[in-house]
Structures are given as structure tokens and as C-alpha cells.
Amino acid sequence: MSRVSAGSGAGSRRLAARLFGIPLRWLGLSAGAATLAVSGFFGGLEGPDEPAIPVVQPGTVDRGSPWNVTVSRVRLVNDLGTLRLTVPGDRWLAVVATVEVTADESRNDLDDVLRLTGVLGLMSQEPAHVMLMRDATELGRLNPGMPEEIAFVWEQSAGAAPPGTVTVQIYGKTYRMDNLANRMEWLDPAVRAEVVAPVQDRRAG
Amino acid sequence: MSDPTFDNTETANLPRVGAADPLSDTAVLGPLRGMPAAGPQPAPAPGPGPVPVPGAWEPTAPTTGTWEPPPPGSGAWPPAGPTAGAWAPAAPGTGPAQPVAPGTVPPEPAGPPEPATPQAGWWRRNRWGLVALLPALALALGPPAKDAYDQITGLEPSRPVTAGADGWTEYAGARMRLVELTDATTEVTAARRPVRLPPGVRVWRARLGFESAETERIGGCKLLLESLDGRTFGADPDELDEASLYSNFCTPGLEKPGPAYETQSYFVLPTSAQPTAVRVVLSVESPRYARLSPG
Amino acid sequence: MSEPPRSANPPAPAAPAAPARSGLARFGARLGVGALFVAALAAGGALTALRPNSDVRERPFVTAGGLGERVSTRTFDVTVLDVRGAAQVARFRQAHDTGGVWIVVRLRLTARNDPTTVGYAALRDERGRLYQQSERFTQPLTNSWVLQPGIPVEGEVAFEVPRAAASRLWLRLAENLAEQGMDSMAEVALLPVDPSTVDGWTRSTAPVPLQTPGAVGT
To answer: What average pLDDT does the structure give for chain B?
Structure first.
């Protein structure tokens, strides 16, 4: 600054500024170009990657929090004992999975464990019933460290084609500080893994 | 205490619903087929991590760059620590440095405003701000405190509404009174379907009179029988589940429609508790409740 | 040697020591402000970091006790009368087995001053894991029964726990099922059981019928 102000006239000051400016700009531009080139070489110019959702084989345990999930089989059935279809003639689409709570407390959000994608005519996004296979009772609560075989049951409209294969999405949650409540909560339900399973048609008649 | 009607052998042969279930068959699954055409939905991005706070807090140059040590005797706070020496104005006439002669206006713009009376203390210079602080604090803290107090006191029925000169209590748009409070233990235990009551428990029946044009407004009322020691007991208790007793709280019976009607409700109290009044509680009226005394 | 004020005058070359001194003073002043600023930020940050979160601040007020002792909370008293284990329990003539072991706790509950319910019942193990009462059948004592002051009610509550956790358990009871924070809670230490006893429970095939709650004499 002192050198510029010490210049004798306006012309020489401009010259000095140009002399200063050109290499700086050149330096900046070339540094930027080099950065782009290097980052582009390492994939910096590609679009942001969606995290790939791992595909899990049926019968394989998918470990995570707040539950470990093993999807065993998917079936179409007409009749499930005491369960009533909202529209007579519809069918049940049931995913049987073993769920073990890995959190430290009993969980009552079991209808958040699984979702189905690519199935037309489902009456609800979340399962209509979550049944304990052990005694066919509606399961509201699952205790930690006690794996249970559970049927997640959706009602599919009779008008929709019965699926040959379904993609079962396994959801997980994250135990983190809820900034609003300032306490630890299980938040951010997100697809953790997917299971592509064939549908066994066990409808009677 | 085992269920007298229970039979172990019977239970052992209970139908196992799960075993008969069509889902229980553990057939071997076919090989996994290819991905469906629809494709998986992309997962939501993972939750946001900690975001670095940009260094925007840096004091801007005009403020700090032109800050001058305050004139001696101005009472301005000198910072503590090792750098204090560069700051602290020397006592008048003692130190070698006289940074700014009193009254000299620093040449740089945007410097801290020179106090009108350099000799005045901090308290004096800020007196109006300090005075204004009091109502500001009152305004800032008062309403939330009152809000919290109202919320806490409004939760529980704490303000009894008692009877007027005519013996009736006006509450929730209705008039009500306690007609009768009687010991109904014998009635219950000697009924056609007698209820087995444990020793030391007494049954009380309260008959209430109502005058109400809009009975639906008091329909959801809760009744409590208050004892002399201040404890309260709920109407239609689980202890009397076996008895077919009719407690209709505040709503008229089907047989007697009309604006004036009577209701009856049953309570259980330990023998030691002496009932004194019936409370009629509506949550929408909280913290007010009607306290109906006999007589 | 007074320091010339940085006035409109051009820099005075006659006093070579003065500009250095002025620069040092200004540097010191900035350093002082900066240090204060950083100190204030650090103090604020430390306070925020040390402040307990809601889970700690709003934790329940626990009253502890042992088997057979009367434990008082704000709204109710509890006495644990008996604890047993089973492979199957029966309620309404339906048997229910378990992947772990059933723990059946017999309780006496009494409301203190006002009608109250005990909606939260859980067992805690040594690792701190919490097993809430089973919902596979209705358990009226700890779901719906309205306790009246001074009239004790006895009944049983059934829990499913992993076998490995069954040896050492604590019973937790509170009024509110959804939220136990900032309210009274009873915690009763159940007697330690050796693993062979737990094995014995799991081997017994006869379902254990659960006692229906009822008022008992005062």
C-alpha cells in the first residue's frame, strides 16, 4: 500500500496496479483451475452420491439400531384367523421377520420396522397389523434382547395384481439429541437395507 | 391365589394359534430375483452433522482498529490480564503516557462515542439505560412467570365453588346440590348378586340434584367423595365391578328427561374415612370445581 | 515523551519510538479485546456443555426399597409380596409362552390421597435395560385399575425378560405410562436368583395362571 501511495503520478500508479493485479489474478485463476482439475480427477465434479442402500438376502440378519431384522418370507393369504379385512375379498400380504430390539428399552414402534415398495393397491403404508407369530396376538411392545418372529401384515386391494416379488425396506432409527426437547430420542427413521423377496401365494381356493 | 376355574391339563391342550397359522410353514425360499423395475427409493440423506460456525464473530476492523484507551478517570473498564499494561491509562500526571488529552477528539471516525462528561462514573453514564432495564426485565420475565403459574395451578382442581344461600351450587352453567349421602354397604353386600367386599371397606351412595338446560356441558364430569382428612375417592370404583350398580354421575337417567333431575353414584371408602362432601370436577372448568356439602 | 495522538498530522519522523509504541499499544488493546471475547465464548461454551440435558434434569424421583417393604411414592404405596418365574403363563384360559422367561410379580398397591392408577410397570436388569410389562394380554392392575386411598389392591404383573437377565432385577412403578420424568417412581430390588433357578422356571411346562387383582382388607 505504501508503495502504491508513494508513486509519483496516476499513470505509474495504474501501471503498478496492473503489474500487481495481473500476476495475482493469474495466480488465483490458475490455482482455482488446478483445484478443479485435481478434485475433478478424484470425482469432485460428479453429482453427490446417494448412499447406496445395501440389499440383504432373505434369511440374513440386518444388524442395526434400534433393532436387528431378519426378513424370512413373504406370503399372500386370504385368511388370518381373527383379523378382518376392511374390504371383503381383499388379500393379506404378510412379511414374516425376526426382530430383536437392540435398544435398552422396550419398543412400541414396531410398525416402523418395515415398509414395502413397488406393491400396488396396499391399503396403508404402514402394516395394518403387527402380529406375534408365537401366539398370534397383536404385538404392541417388544422387549430388548428378546428376538421374536413377527408377521407384518398389509391389506392389498383385490383389484391390484398380486405381486410376484416385493422389495421389503428395513428401517432404522438414530439415537441422538433432540435439539428441540434437549433430550436423547430415537429419531430420523431411514431405510437401512432392502430385501427383495419372492412372494409365496398361499391363498386357499 | 389361583383361578378356581383354571385347569392345567386344559391349558396344556390349548390351540396354538401360531402353529396352525399359514405363515408358520418354513418353506425354503427361492433364489433372490433381480431388482424390480421400479427400483429402490433413494434413502433420505443422513441427518445433518455438526455445522461449523463461520468465523463471523470477528470484531470488525473499524471498531477495534480505532479503539483508543479511554481518558484517565473515565472509569472505563480496563481489561485484565497481561495485555492490561497496554490499556490501562496511567493516573493523571504520573505515568509517561498521556494517550489523549481530555477533550481531544480522536481523529478516526466510528470510534466509541466520547462520554459527555468524561469524569462521570459508569453508573452515571448508564443511568437511563439502567432505569429502563427494570421495566424491560419486568416485561420480559413477568408474563412467562404468570403463564407458568396459571398453567401449574390450572392443572389440578384447586378452587372450590360452594353453595349459595339457597343451598344450590352454580357451576359450569348448571345448578347442583347434594341431596343425600348414605352408607350403602348393606345394600351392596346383601343384594341379589352380593359383592364380596374386603373387611374395613364401606360403600357410600351420593344422590345429586341437578338443574341444567344443557346437560351435555356437564356430561363428562368426574365425581369425587371427599373425606374429613382431605382424601378423595372416585365414583364407580373397580372394587364394585361385580355389582351391577348404576352410577350416572352428572347426566340424567333415561327415564327422567328434563332440566331438573337426580343422579346417584357409588363410592368405596375405608371404614376410617368420614365422607364430608362431593366434588364435581370438569377439566374445562379447572381449577374451579363444585364442592357440594350435605344439608 | 508523550505519545503523539494519531491526529490529522502526517507521521512525525522526528519521534521514531512513538509509532512503535502506538502500534504496540493498539496491538495490545486488540489482543485484550480478543482475549476477553474468546474467554466469554469459552465460558459460555463450557456452561452449555456442563448443563445437564432434559433426560438428567427431568429424571424421575426414585424411592427405593426391597421385597416385602412398603415403598411410598407421591401418589401410591407399593409392597412387592412375591416373585416367581415360569416358561408359560395363562390368562383367561389362554397360555402364553415366551422366548425368554416370564417373571410374575405379586404386588399390593394402595393410593395415598386421591384415586390413582399405576400405568408404568417395568423391570430393570443389571445392564440398565428396561423391560415393560407384557402387553400380550390385559393386565388390569397396572393398566386400568383405579386405586382408592386406603384400600389396598393385590394382583400380579407379568414381564418377559431374557433368561440371562432374569437373575437380578428391579421393579419400577410409576403413575404415568407415557412419561415418568419429574414425577415419583418406586424401584423395588427383587431378590437375586441363581441361574439354576431360572433354568428350573424355563423347564416347567405347566402354565402359571395369573392372579386377577382385587381389593384386600385394610
So the answer is: 71
